[in-house]
Amino acid sequence: MKITLNREYATRHLGVAILFAALCGWFLYDGSIQWPAENAAWERRTGTTVAAALAAHPELKREHEKENRNDIPPHWPEEIARQHQFAGICALAACLIAGLVGLNWKRTLEWDDTQMNGSLTGGKPLLFTDIVGVEDAQWEKKGILVLFAKDGRRVTLDAWHHAGVEALVAKILPKKDAEPKA
Description:
The structure is a single chain. By secondary structure, the protein is α+β, with helices and mostly antiparallel strands. It has five helices and eight strands; from the N terminus they run E-H-H-H-E-E-E-E-H-E-E-E-H. The strands form three sheets. A three-stranded antiparallel β-sheet has the order 2-3-4, with no helix packed on it. A three-stranded antiparallel β-sheet has the order 5-6-7. The chain has a two-stranded antiparallel sheet with strand order 1-8. A hairpin with a 3-residue loop joins strand 2 and strand 3. Helix 1 (7-46) packs antiparallel against helix 3 (77-106). The model has no long low-confidence stretch (mean pLDDT 90).
């Protein structure tokens, strides 16, 4: 048997990553296309430039003070730059979240009746008889079980990130209920 990436975990996290990527696109669109176009239309309508308006009204940079004023451009350069900053933050968040899902997808573990092997065991087989300790304090609430081996290895099993963990835990802890209560 083997563990696989938990579909619910992957779907939720990749959905959030897609949401952040969409927000990134929205901020980039506003800061690179929409808002500069609105400023260009304002410049054509008023016959002046955004830079000239900034020089003429340096005290009016706050958002609420420029409402309903035709002599103030619709978007200050700082506001446009802020859209690019928000886009960068959203892109970073999307990449980090998708990267974490990818890291969990690459974590592997297979087992048979006598041993388990995979990236979670450091790429070396771990015999079930070599497990000297089990920390199950978080199993009931969070579905996390930590195994300690004779050679000092520590294997963390997480039922939220990987499907199939319950079957392995039932093999390791046959006396307890293998289903986390979370």
